[in-house]
Amino acid sequence: MLWYGNPESEIRDSYKNTFFCSNVIEVTEEGLAKAKYCKNRWCPICQRNKMGLMINTYGPRLQQCEDLWFLTLTKPNVPADQLKDEIKKYQALWRVIANTNVYRKAMKRGVIGIRKMECTYHAKQFLEDGRPDPWYDTYHPHLHLLISEQELAYFIISEWKRLNPEISEDAQKIEKLETAGGYLEVFKYFTKLIAKDSTGRRFFDPIHMDVIFRAMRGNRVYFRLGTTAAWGCQEISEEDEEQAAVIETDATPSFYRWLESDEFFGFYDVETGETLTELPKKGRIFDIITDSEKQYGEEGEKQGSAPSTAYSVEGRTEEGDRDEVFKPSVGSGRDAGRVQGQCRGNGTLGRSQDQGTGHVRGTDNERAEALCQRPRRGERPEREDPGP
Ligand SMILES: [Zn+2]
Fold this sequence. Notes:
This protein has 14 helices and 14 strands. It is α+β, with helices and mostly antiparallel strands. The protein is globular, with a radius of gyration of 23 Å. The site of zinc ion has 8 residues, from helix 3.
């Protein structure tokens, strides 16, 4: 939907890559399942892989911290055309703080932390009392920080206020994390993918997310603060990210392709049709996607319009969303008439393994053939390759 909803976006090619993210899994002779990932920050599969890796790598150390603080640093919202510059300002302001003697000394004595840049869109048109909301249609970049020491945490807050005298006192948050898993908050998605309007309707908002993703392009989202010695582990590298996405399996060595029929989706052996995974096609997330596809499928592409409803993308993503994450199907010239199916669910290979390695539902070619030929919901065979 990011692709359909943003025909003019300069990062549209990257949106297209996400259609094909991990739609083929190779199971090697050594029993390793590997997939090719798009690594885009809007891709739920790749985000989940990354989040898992960060929790596994940094979580154990963070859990040892007995004095862990969660900070939110903000400035007033800005309109779309100022967002890119505003994000640069945040980075410049952070550099000022990180260059102070107080901060450097804290790093030397072993304080650690995580810094994360986040951005939300303010789509609420009206206030509770019915007056127009002055922040309607603005963007809200902000920094989240985890800091393993009270003294430094309070210093950062006071510095931020000193550097931004115009900001309101209550917009800055500082709280001590009492539960061991509290740090997970910072590992959540860079921006929430499912929006919610004032009536509680949940949908996908590609237009405003495109503004955010374009403004954030080339910027890292997560930074680890503190020395390697204080962390006791290396910083996560790109190689780590590749390795983390490989899992061991006892499935038959082959290539498995993501397929979608009317009732099921999953990975199927391209030769035999044997399933690596298979799941029934139903649930709340499908309703949200179907709804949003109506707005941002071919219709949305024609209109390229933003939703008229007021909503807030700042609403917390609920548990369920993280369990089922999907992409829209797209007909592609390259694959037309052959095996298709870019809709992708339950992105974790680990889960797939549980769901049915070697579980055979019709192992013959006929089944694979039937799956390939059955038209999928939302398939658009007349569409040429969705070029740039
Ligand atoms: Zn991806």
